[in-house]
Amino acid sequence: MTSNNKPTKTALITGATGLLGRQVVKAFQGLSVPTELSTKASQEWTWDVNGTGFSRADGVNVLKVDLEKEEEVERVLGEVNPQVLVHCAANRFPDKVDADPEGTRLLNVEATRTLAKACASRGILLIYISTDYVFSGKPGEAPYQADAPTCPTNLYGVTKLDGEKAVMEEFSKAGKEGLGVVMRVPVLYGKTEEGRNEESAVNVLLGAVLKAQEGKKVKMDHWALRFPTNTEDVGRVCKDVAIKYLSTSETERASLPRILQMSSEEQYTKYEMCKLFAEILGVSLDNMEANTEGNDPNASVQRPYDCHLSTKALKDIGIDVSTQDFVSWWRRELRAFRH
């Protein structure tokens, strides 16, 4: 307990140097959640927050841990002793996954299994960040409920689904089913690190808009439906879920859902997002061509048409699924570009 009588828990966030991981850390620290969206329970808890990373970890603010090595996972869990672990680390870019299938499986599946096994044996709540790409995304199927049949379109979706299964299996083996939770999210956007817009499949579209200003013809997808969701909102929900599950008795926790889904309800194609960015920046999009053809059948990575996630499972357990307005957020973010 702290001096102000607020209960203190410890959280460990993997992938804490990444686009989502940074915001999950801030959410648990109470640094990025608007007061109006903060639950009463959230305001009554305080957290000691630790993050892990690898290539960008400094060993001070972010612990350097190779999640593919069981001994390193065991060591950090023993040192930090968290009550909740939010597993954000992953290879989450479909094209990069196809380029390195073995390395991706080690991180997305085997490292997840190692974490799940270690967390289950210690009674640690694990929130595994998964993806809307576990679904086929065929026209007419969405929105997908959390218990809808899965059928990934590409290898990225396959590895993330296998990660989900690993979490379920390891917690079931340990008899700790209520502590292994999957959180599926769609394409994310938010604050990038030092202008690294390639961290997000949304933020990176700014580069395409600027390229179109150079007189180069740019083709942009105007077929697949996306539901871009802000990393700050996902971070807040992860924190609220942690509080919900940790504050529920073991008996009652068994009745809570094991698969949750968080998503904005705002729908855009990539071309529509580019058009919006161009309007905000006050530039022309004459050199960008809207591509409505869908997947190139010869492309190595096939992408789903519509994987809109239903957030009903979160709502049913009392979690606020409000999200920031996409246009308003980007108007604020791009203000500097206009001056």
UniProtKB/TrEMBL annotation:
**Which Pfam families does the record associate with it?**
RmlD_sub_bind
Instruction: Specify the superkingdom.
Output: Eukaryota
List the record's Gene Ontology CC terms alphabetically.
methionine adenosyltransferase complex
Report domain RmlD-like substrate binding positions: 11-321
Q: Which GO terms describe its biological process?
A: S-adenosylmethionine biosynthetic process
What molecular function terms (GO) are annotated for this protein?
methionine adenosyltransferase regulator activity
Q: What is this protein called?
A: RmlD-like substrate binding domain-containing protein
The scientific name of the source species is Sordaria brevicollis
